Amino acid sequence: xxxxxxxxxxxxxxxxxxxxxxxxxxxxxxxxxxxxxxxxxxxxxxxxxxxxxxxxxxxxxxxxxxxxxxxxxxxxxxxxxxxxxxxxxxxxxxxxxxxxxxxxxxxxxxxxxxxxxxxxxxxxxxxxxxxxxxxxxxxxxxxxxxxxxxxxxxxxxxxxxxxxxxxxxxxxxxxxxxxxxxxxxxxxxxxxxxxxxxxxxxxxxxxxxxxxxxxxxxxxxxx
Length: 223
Known about the structure:
Number of domains: 1
CATH class: Alpha Beta
Helix content: 40-55%
Number of strands: 7
Radius of gyration: 17 Å
Low-confidence stretches: none
Strand content: 15-25%
CATH topology: Rossmann fold
Order of helices and strands: HHEHEHEEHEHHHEE
Largest sheet: 7 strands, mixed
Distance between the termini: 37 Å
CATH architecture: 3-Layer(aba) Sandwich
CATH superfamily: Vaccinia Virus protein VP39
């Protein structure tokens, strides 16, 4: 599914969120530690928007992005090459639940709009914790379910009905955008997610709601 919609992914993300997704990513990166010698991992990197924004803002020594969608990665590599950032940002085929890295390897680990797609959420989070150095920080950006009336009802109607319609006319794949609503509804957001983070090895797990709860930033530390 993600391979199929890859050519339209960036355009639809920005269109359907009215560009707010760009601000969300920038806000999430403010939670990351600053350090020129750091090595950072972006899990479920997709077309590398977050990985590129990390490098743009923080200029760490290295950013590695992993994803199982080869079509997404190819688009990301083109974007990185256009910026001449390919020595500093590397994209690799990789399963988020079986990361091809040694223990305690990265100074920080991130994920944007990817963890809700993990087949086994706890295994994926445990892997992110495993490859993080002690004292390192995880920053996860993910959709959540707003609770404020009537914004919740408007949000659900948009995601459930209008978004798949737009997706069908642009990417020719309405199923991908129906899946978006279903995956958001099934995702254990808020306190439920921070509890899972703590079970999988993170301490100081926090949730920062954005845009009336449409999206949240989750952070945690590896002890």
